[in-house]
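REQUEST FORM: STRUCTURE PREDICTION
Request ID: SP-0412
Submitted by: Lab K.M.
Chain count: 1
Length (residues): 422
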Amino acid sequence: MDKIVNRKQQIRLFLLEFFSFLIIFTVLGTIIFLFYQRNTYNSIDSTLTQRTQMAANSTNMMGPPDFQTITVYYNSKGKILNSQYLNNMASTVSKIKVNKNQLNRIFNIKSGDTTLRCAYVKVRSKMTMKRGDDKLLKASKQPKYVLVIKNVTPELQGVNRFKDLLLASLIIFGLIVFIISYIISRYNMKPVLKAWKQQEEFVDSAAHEIRTPLTIIQNKLEGLMTKPNDTIKDQIGAIIMSLSEIRRLNGLTSDMLTLARANSNVITLEKAPVNFSEFMNEILEPYTDLIESEDKKLVTSINVDKPVLVDAKRLHQLIVILLDNAIKYTPTGATITVNSSIENRNLKIQICDTGIGISDKNKKSVFKRFYREEKSGNKQTGGNGLGLSIAEWIVRAHNGHIKITDNPGGGSIFTVLLPVAK
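STATUS: Completed
RESULT:
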């Protein structure tokens, strides 16, 4: 079922990306084509307008066609007056029918495979017999209208070739976008699938962790109900165990809530300058008697003589997690070492234990939620496998790094590097 859901999500993401890219390229291609087409027609129309104005205001009929346009003069009855200048275009021009509705407009006319673009206007001047002559043409020979024609077939063929090239490019880019969208959708789904898997594992592990203490508490309470005449002293063991499991549940739910809020970015750091030496002494002081009571030794070396900019509350939580972890796994008679210093503008904190150590295979896994390398020792060491996950989040929230190395004397060294202000 999960695979089907994930597959559907990937398909939806792929289609969304594909059609988004396709629409963008299509709109872009359309804009480029329309811009190119408009510029082509603007250039043609500019030539036609200029030639039309010259013909309409000329005092004598313009001569043979130039290499761009043909000028045709009509009298009031629609008869062509300059057919002698039209040469081989006379037959084509004679087939062109224009009317007053087309006056002062630019329009296309199709003649076989040839496309002609025309401008039709009134002649605004009286024309003479020849240049420099004051003698006007007869009324029947006097032009009333002028039609300027330009063969735009080559330009339109260029526009069509550009359109075909653009369509071919869009098809090719469409195929490329199809492939890229598929790759991107798979790539983007990886963190989603990873988060989905982590959520499932988290829920499964949380359910397992919660079920165990609840079962113990339920069994103890049911046992108490079977012995209503017993005193508290008679059932003190069951009561102590139930309270212990309740404390464990409280710690578990608190850690789960912290991680959930961290993942949803609800928690923000509140950094402030901290006198680190005094800060560490306040943290370590309560642990001194505890470590000595377990016949273990605590060695400290705090070499930070200036304030550091950190979230004191979260940093306190980080050190407590690492210190508790070291105490749990350090055997009786062994030493726990806490070092701190400033190296390369980083606050370096090292907590070393001389316990059983962590295998190279599992060094990265210890920061996963509910992960514990020694399953059999969970009851003896306590904890729920969330402490190091919270520790890693605190370090990442400070833009720092945490790593685990082997202690030469046995055990592990947790090294934390946090960037500090200059």
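NOTES: The chain has three domains: 57-151, 194-263, 272-419.
Reviewed by: T.R.
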